[in-house]
């Protein structure tokens, strides 16, 4: 299956954060990611499954790589482990740093516009913790 035939996966919103995350994927530094179960539920989308492949797009919407999911876990925010945090490739050195960074994003104006103004992450908020491998660079 070619890069053009794959479904698209987006990391963050277009802009500097997406550019940073895509660069980390392309360099091999980023091999995990986190999303909210609530996002899938709100969009009526099934949770991802190991073996699924997707095209990574950059801030301009170009397909720049393909990744394949190798592991998908649903865990409360409080149970995200250090290995997952480190493998996000964003420079986190602890789970506390991972959580602070992700809460900042999840509580941002862009996410609140999607999730509602009262959305707040708690220890019990369910996260989709995904591991992936880079399979193709476009």
From TrEMBL:
Coiled-coil ranges per UniProt: none
InterPro entries according to UniProt: ASCH_domain, DUF984, PUA-like_sf
PANTHER family from the UniProt entry: CYTOPLASMIC PROTEIN (PTHR39203:SF1), CYTOPLASMIC PROTEIN-RELATED (PTHR39203)
Stretches assigned to the ASCH domain: 11-136
Any matching Pfam family: ASCH
Name of this chain's protein: ASCH domain-containing protein
Lineage per the UniProt record: Bacteria, Bacillati, Actinomycetota, Actinomycetes, Kitasatosporales
Gene3D superfamilies, per the entry: Sulfate adenylyltransferase (3.10.400.10)
């Amino acid at each position: 299956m070619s890069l053009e035939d794959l479904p698209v996966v987006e990391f963050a919103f277009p802009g500097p954060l997406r550019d940073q995350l895509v660069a980390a994927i392309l360099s091999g530094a980023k091999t995990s990611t986190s999303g909210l179960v609530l996002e899938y539920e709100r969009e009526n989308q099934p949770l991802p499954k190991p073996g699924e492949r997707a095209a990574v797009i950059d801030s301009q919407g170009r397909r720049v790589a393909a990744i394949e999911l190798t592991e998908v876990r649903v865990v409360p925010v409080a149970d995200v482990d250090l290995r997952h945090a480190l493998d996000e490739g964003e420079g986190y050195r602890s789970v506390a740093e991972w959580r602070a960074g992700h809460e900042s994003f999840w509580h941002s104006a862009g996410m609140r516009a999607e999730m509602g103004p009262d959305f707040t992450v708690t220890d019990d908020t369910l996260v989709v913790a995904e591991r992936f491998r880079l399979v193709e660079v476009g």
